[in-house]
């Protein structure tokens, strides 16, 4: 029998929905994994002196990036 996920509104089998305290949860495994992945903090990025040097050379050659026009949404 198929169920509908409340998060993504997909029709999936019962096996795609995890149980919690003996009850079936209304959010599918795929959505729960996406939610957990979005909530975890990313590891800090280490500074790479070579990349910083290359970025600085690029800025002196081409100039800094200018945002003369704003990105517009179609909505």
TrEMBL record:
Protein name: Uncharacterized protein
């Amino acid at each position: 029998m198929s169920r509908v996920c409340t998060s993504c509104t997909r029709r999936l089998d019962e096996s795609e929905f995890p149980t919690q305290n003996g009850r079936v949860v209304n959010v599918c495994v795929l959505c729960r994994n996406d939610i957990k992945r979005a909530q975890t903090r990313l590891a800090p990025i280490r500074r790479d002196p070579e990349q910083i040097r290359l970025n600085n050379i690029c800025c002196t050659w081409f100039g800094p990036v200018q945002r003369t026009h704003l990105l517009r949404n179609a909505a």
